[in-house]
Amino acid sequence: MTGASADEVAAALLDVVSQKTGYPAEMLDLGMDVEADLGIDSIKRVEIMGVLQEQFPSPPPSAPNNSVNCARSVRSWTSC
């Protein structure tokens, strides 16, 4: 899927985070810190980014994993 809207990416992101963490999607918010609020470590972060790359295959060539600290950052990185 290319040219996805920010809302489509946000919905997919929350769905993937819900699947990977076990948190209900209704409890998740794009402003949550992936480590502090959700307990997502670097390995799980890579897994989430991999799923999003499969769903939205045209992200920018690189994204510094260190700067992706909240769900909103992930959505921005995957929006094209």
Q: What's the architecture in CATH terms?
A: Orthogonal Bundle
What overall geometry do the principal axes of the alpha carbons give? Answer: globular
How far is the N terminus from the C terminus? 10 Å
CATH class bucket: Mainly Alpha
Total domain units: 1
> According to CATH, what is the topology?
Non-ribosomal Peptide Synthetase Peptidyl Carrier Protein, Chain A
Largest sheet: none
Low-confidence stretches: none
Number of strands: 0
CATH homolog superfamily: ACP-like
Oligomeric composition of the shown chains: single chain
Q: Please tell me how large the radius of gyration is.
A: 11 Å
Specify the number of helices.
Answer: 3
Strand percentage lies at under 5%
Mean pLDDT: 78
Helix content: 40-55%
What structural category do the secondary elements indicate? Answer: mainly alpha
Q: What's the SSE pattern?
A: HHH
What does this structure look like?
The model has no long low-confidence stretch (mean pLDDT 78). This protein has helices at 6-21, 42-55, 71-78. α1 (6-21) packs across α2 (42-55). The protein has a single domain, classed as Orthogonal Bundle (Non-ribosomal Peptide Synthetase Peptidyl Carrier Protein, Chain A). It is globular. Helix content is 48%, strand content 0%. With 80 residues, it is mostly helical.
